[in-house]
Design a protein that fits this description.
mainly alpha
Length: about 70
């Protein structure tokens, strides 16, 4: 919750557009962890515009590290 209170979610959303795939992947993980912590935090991610950039990454066939 401290990350959300520090207004970091919009920063993570911005990192989804990074040219570095590793940065994109880490941003997705961070956003997923936040959104997965309950409906209120899910809504924070949605309100920060996180859905479209994540869908764009999914559609672009970005490689995921294993």
């Amino acid at each position: 919750m401290a990350v959300v209170k520090a207004n970091a979610v919009p920063q993570f959303v911005a990192l989804l557009s990074s040219p570095e795939e590793n940065v994109q992947e880490q941003a997705v993980w961070a956003i997923g962890n936040i959104a997965g912590d309950g409906p209120q935090l899910r809504d924070v991610v949605i309100d920060a515009g996180g859905v479209e950039p994540i869908l764009k990454l999914v559609r672009s066939n970005v490689k995921v590290s294993s």
